Each structure stands twice: as structure tokens, then as C-alpha cells.
Amino acid sequence: MIDHGNYLRRLFRWAHMIWAILAGAVCVLLIVGGGGHPPPIIFVPVVGVVWVAGHIALWGVRRLAVAGKVRASNAQGEAPSWPPGLVIALIGTGAISFLGLLQLVISAVLSARYPFRGALWPMALTIWMAHAACFTGLLLRRPWSRWATAMLSAGWALLLAWQILEHVFRASRINPTELLIAIGLAALPTWLGYHMLTSERIQAFFGSR
Asked: Is 111 exposed, middle or buried (0-12, 13-18, 19+ CB in 10 A)?
């Protein structure tokens, strides 16, 4: 039988190690990157701030995961394991949430909106925050996060479908391989949203059945 407490500790220990290695590798590349204007080495402090923020975020994620497990154990007697579909949703919303964290941290360090300008900056941040709220709800095993994930998945599917149609109507030549890849990418969030709403195992995970 798996000791989920030890499993979580090992998982996040590896996550912290990988994050530290990635940050160190980026710093080395910036230091030995040579000249340029501005020289890459001046961005090392930015990487340092992002490195610290990443470790704090991982610590927070672990706390949320433990809290969600305790809540499920109190409500259901034993916390159920994560279904594969939920793991995909967790990875997706977590990755997009991390983009929002990068946007905030780098913008704060540079004292300028990054990487977007004008109205696109708050619009992008709103999207990242919506995913962060869903990511938090999933970790805490809140039933509303199932519906939120389905809605976000539908939004991405509609956006991709709109971009595909726009390309089809505007392009003079269409690459069949690229079109099939785009359709496949649009099908993934469509399937995920449907799966979140219909899977009995996911419903049971949130105590809805």
C-alpha cells in the first residue's frame, strides 16, 4: 500500500531539485552567452527571482495537495487516487498558472509590463488567474473545479477551432499535415471537458456520487 505522505514528499523533493537544476542551467547559459546588447548576464538576477518564486510556488502547491487529501479523507474515509483525466487537467492548469506567475514576477522585476503591452497584459493575466483558481480547486478537491475545468477546456477548444477556421478561409494553400495536427490539438481540450463532466470515476473523486 502506497504511503501518500511519503510519496508527496519525494515527488516535491524531486520537483524542487529539477527546478533548481533548470534555473542553474539558465544562469550558466546567460553567463557564458557572450556579448550582445544588453549582455545576457544582466538577466541573471531576474532568473534568481523567478527561481525563488518557483520554489515558493512548489511549497504552496504541496500544502494545497496535502490539505485536499486530508479533506477527502475526512469526507470519504480514505482519499481516492487521482484519475488519469484529472492528472492531465492538473498538469495543464498548473502549467498555464505558472505562465501567470512568470508574467507577474518578471513584470515586477523589470518595472514594466512583460511580455505583453496594452490591454493584452491584463487580459492574459486574467486568463492565467482563472486557470490558477481552477488548479487550486483541483488540488483541494473542490467539486466546482470539475465544472471550471470543463469550461476552460471548452474555451480553449473554441479558440483553437476559430483559429483553424480562420486559417482555412484565409490561406491560399493548406498543409494537410498541419491541419490534422491543429484539429488534434483542438480535440484534446474538447475530450477533456467532456470527460470531466461524464466520468463516473472523476465524479466519485469529488464525492459527487
From this structure: exposed
pLDDT in tens, 160-196: 999 988 888 887 787 888 889 888 999 999 999 999 9
- Between CA 30 and CA 46 the distance in angstroms is 11
Specify the length of the chain in residues: 209
Task: Give the dihedral of Cα atoms 53, 54, 55, 60; nearest 10 deg.
Answer: 90
Q: Flag whether the pTM goes above 0.90.
A: no
- Distance CA(26)–CA(47), nearest Å, equals 8
Measured between alpha carbons, how far is 205 from 141 in angstroms, rounded to an integer? Answer: 8
Residue type, 205: F
77 DSSP 8-state letter: S
Q: Classify the C-alpha dihedral 92-94-96-99 as positive or negative.
A: negative
